[in-house]
Every structure is written in structure tokens, then in C-alpha cells.
């Protein structure tokens, strides 16, 4: 192309992966973010890349558990009623898409995106020379009772349908696989089609260093606005009074994409599934070999470079509402029943925001009626798992190449119109 320039806004997993992919396709790419790469939502996830993540939260099983969830007392789910009252388009749309037909469409789409991403992640890790951070021994779903395991039938049937490799474990088999866990779990499901890393933020940073080593530019500044410019170009404004011009721009700002696009008259039906994490030391000789998800305790515990990372469930609230630590307290109590954990390793609790659209699928593609404005956000809990696949799909769309997966489930026009 005559002027093959792109600005990618947002330096999380999705944005950095998009920058690398577009650079690979010959574009002159600038990546801009207010913070260093991998320091926002991508910083604090559980580090899991799993095909089991094809199960969205709004699946048909949601209806059975809804009365308990609406009680607003569980470690799995908390919400601010005023946030839901102010966002009925999202709330009603999210519930409406928990029906079987839409769930099947979403699971199919997410499975394709995750499978593509797993291949791309491994390629990028090799090129960035960080394969030592990768574990390919799966992860575990833990069930505290036979009834809890029986209640997971929909998830197990769905994984079977999509050919996700799993193995059911009894108490002894679980103890053999993860001897550090106390014998409080009746059953477990070993998700073998899963990988994990020991520090997701470091993975994003390594990808960003690869981008720079290949000639990419990273600008650390807060994006203040976006304007259509002359000759079908775009102007990206920053908070220091500077600007960048490019033929195309990519909005990959995760939960902040909604507010950023609003001044352009683009109304994104997005909610924020906030979550917390904390690192803990472990008793001598006590460790995990892979991440575990305690379905009853509603937390994920991951072995990280800095210790055991405890990640919580969902809290629906405004993007930048003050933190509330009730979920972390409940999750920590449950985790200490399962494994011997040391003291908290940080003073402050980390808070992240998972940007979720009503159908639990991201938007990946060009904005209708706005040539050159490309969107890559809304990845809910699976941005780390799906970032490189998102980049591969967006790059193929942008340059008119053979598409690696079906783009239809992710098109912007399902929620946004010219």
C-alpha cells in the first residue's frame, strides 16, 4: 500500500499481538498506551490458555444458578444493582443470549478463536525466546462433592462435543497428580487441552520487546481522542498535546474502549466483569504443577514466578469504581481449605476489568461506515487466550487475505452501526 501506517491503541495482550501481526504484514506500526505493555487487564489474569474457555458465563446453565447469584453474597459473582439499572441494554442482552442456540454459536466461535490463538501464542513465544515460561500440562476443575461434579454435565458435554481432551479424576488420581492439594475434593476434571504461563505480564512485555526489535514504535501516553483527518487518514490525540497520524487505527483498549469511542457517536454495549488477585507464599515443599479452578470456592489458583496467584470471580460494576475486597476474602478462605498457603506477598490488592459484550464474544473487524477504524475489544475473561488469534483474524481482514476462521460471529455490525 502507498501509505501503510497503523496506530494501535492499547498495549495489553490484544493490542501488542495486533501490533506484531500488522508489522509482520509490512505495516509501519505505532503502539500507544498510557502505561507500559501488559500492565492493565493483561497483568493480572490466571495465565491460562485453555480450550475449556469456550464456555461463556451466559450459558443455559446460568438460569439454574441465577436466584443464588442475584443474592449478591457469593464469591463467584457480585454486582452493583445501580450499574445494572444504568445498563439495561447490556444486562437484558446478556441474559437473552443464555439460550441454547446463541450459546452454541458463541462456543463454536470462541473455540475457533482459542485454537487459532494457541498456535499463534506458541509461535510468538518461540520468536520472543520465552518458551521456558510455558507449561503444557493442562489445568484442573475441582469439585467438592459428587453433586457438584454432576452439576457440571453441561460443561463436560460441551467440551466433549468440541473434542476438548479431558480426564475425570477420583480422589486418589487427583492426589497423585497434585499432591499438595488437601483431600477435600470428591472429583476433578483434568483439562488436557490447556497451557499456562508463569507470568502473563512478562509474556506481553516479551512480545512488545519483539515488536520494538523489529522496528516498531511504542509511545507511552494516554490517548485523548480520535479524529477523522484529511486524505482518509486518522489523527490520534494524546494527553500531552501531541498526535499521531495513520491510514488505519486499531482500538484495542479493552474496558476503556467504550468510553473512548463514545465521543465519536459509537455506543458500545459493554459491561465490566471486574476481578481481583493476590500472591501468596507457599509452605516449603508445597506447590502446584498447574493452575486449578475450585468450582465451589470460586477462585483460580495458579503457580506463578512470584508465588501462588489467587484470582477471584466476577464483580459487575463501573469500570473505575472503588475496589471491594469481599470476594477476595471469601476466595482466600476457601483456598486455605484446599492448600497450605503462606502470607500475602503484596500490600495492595490488584483489580482488573474484563470487558464483556452481551454475547460474550469480542468485536474483531472494521467499524461500519468508518473506513480505517478497526476494533479489537470485548474479550471478557479470555483476552490472554485469544489475543494472538484476534490479531491473525484482524490482519487477514485488513489486508484481504484468506481468513483463518469465520469472522461473522465477531463482526462489529452485530452491535454497532454506521
Task: Describe the protein.
Residues 6-395 form the FAD dependent oxidoreductase domain. It comes from Polaromonas jejuensis. The chain is of the alpha+beta class. It is 32% helix and 27% strand. It has twelve helices and 23 strands. The chain has helices at residues 13-24, 62-70, 81-86, 88-96, 100-128, 146-150, 153-161, 171-177, 200-213, 257-261, 326-338, 383-398; strands at residues 5-9, 28-33, 48-50, 77-79, 134-135, 139-143, 166-169, 187-191, 194-197, 217-220, 223-229, 233-238, 243-246, 248-251, 271-282, 292-294, 299-304, 307-311, 314-316, 341-344, 350-356, 363-366, 373-377. Strands 4, 6, 7, 8, 15, 16, 17, 18, 19, 20 and 21 form an eleven-stranded mixed beta sheet that branches. The protein has a six-stranded mixed beta sheet with strand order 10-2-1-14-23-22, with helices on one face. The protein has a three-stranded antiparallel beta sheet with strand order 3-9-5. α1 packs parallel to α9 (200-213) and α1 (13-24) runs parallel beside α12. The protein starts with a strand and ends in a 20-residue tail after the last helix. The mean pLDDT is 95.
List keywords for this structure.
alpha+beta, FAD/NAD(P)-binding domain, globular, six-stranded mixed sheet, about 30% helix, 12 helices, about 425 residues
Amino acid at each position: 500500500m502507498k501509505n501503510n501506517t497503523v496506530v494501535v491503541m492499547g498495549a495489553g495482550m490484544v493490542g501488542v499481538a495486533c501490533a506484531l501481526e500488522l508489522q509482520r504484514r509490512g505495516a509501519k506500526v505505532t503502539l500507544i498506551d498510557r502505561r507500559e505493555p501488559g500492565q492493565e487487564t493483561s497483568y493480572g489474569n490466571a495465565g491460562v490458555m485453555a480450550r475449556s474457555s469456550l464456555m461463556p458465563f451466559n450459558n443455559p446453565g446460568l438460569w439454574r444458578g441465577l436466584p443464588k447469584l442475584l443474592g449478591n453474597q457469593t464469591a463467584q459473582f457480585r454486582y452493583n444493582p445501580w450499574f445494572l439499572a444504568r445498563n439495561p441494554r447490556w444486562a437484558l442482552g446478556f441474559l437473552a443470549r443464555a439460550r441454547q442456540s446463541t450459546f452454541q454459536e458463541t462456543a463454536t466461535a470462541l473455540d475457533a478463536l482459542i485454537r487459532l490463538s494457541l498456535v499463534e501464542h506458541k509461535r510468538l513465544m518461540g520468536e520472543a525466546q520465552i518458551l521456558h515460561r510455558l507449561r503444557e500440562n493442562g489445568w484442573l476443575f475441582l469439585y467438592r462433592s459428587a453433586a457438584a461434579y454432576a452439576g457440571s454435565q453441561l460443561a463436560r458435554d460441551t467440551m466433549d462435543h468440541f473434542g476438548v481432551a479431558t480426564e475425570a479424576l477420583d480422589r486418589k488420581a487427583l492426589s497423585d497428580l497434585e499432591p499438595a492439594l488437601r483431600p477435600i475434593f470428591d472429583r476433578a476434571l483434568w483439562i488436557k487441552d490447556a497451557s499456562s504461563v508463569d507470568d502473563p505480564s512478562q509474556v506481553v512485555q516479551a512480545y512488545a520487546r519483539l515488536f520494538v526489535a523489529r522496528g516498531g514504535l511504542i509511545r507511552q501516553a494516554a490517548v485523548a481522542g480520535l479524529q477523522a483527518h484529511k486524505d482518509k487518514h486518522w489523527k490520534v490525540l494524546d494527553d500531552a498535546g501531541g498526535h499521531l497520524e495513520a491510514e488505519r487505527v486499531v482500538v484495542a483498549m479493552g474496558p476503556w474502549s467504550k468510553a473512548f469511542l463514545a465521543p465519536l457517536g459509537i455506543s458500545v454495549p459493554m459491561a465490566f466483569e471486574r476481578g481481583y488477585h493476590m500472591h501468596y507464599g507457599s509452605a516449603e515443599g508445597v506447590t502446584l504443577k498447574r493452575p486449578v479452578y475450585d468450582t465451589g470456592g470460586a477462585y483460580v489458583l495458579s503457580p506463578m514466578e512470584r508465588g501462588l496467584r489467587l484470582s477471584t470471580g466476577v464483580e459487575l460494576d463501573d469500570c473505575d469504581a472503588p475496589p471491594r475486597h469481599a470476594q477476595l476474602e471469601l476466595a482466600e478462605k476457601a483456598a486455605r481449605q484446599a492448600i497450605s498457603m503462606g502470607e500475602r506477598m503484596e500490600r495492595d490488592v490488584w483489580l482488573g476489568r474484563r470487558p464483556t459484550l452481551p454475547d460474550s464474544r469480542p468485536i474483531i473487524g472494521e467499524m461500519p461506515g468508518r473506513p480505517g477504524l478497526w476494533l479489537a475489544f470485548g474479550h471478557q475473561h479470555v483476552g490472554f487466550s485469544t489475543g494472538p488469534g484476534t490479531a491473525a483474524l484482524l490482519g487477514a481482514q485488513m489486508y484481504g487475505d484468506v481468513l483463518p476462521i469465520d469472522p461473522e460471529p465477531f463482526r462489529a455490525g452485530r452491535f454497532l452501526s454506521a
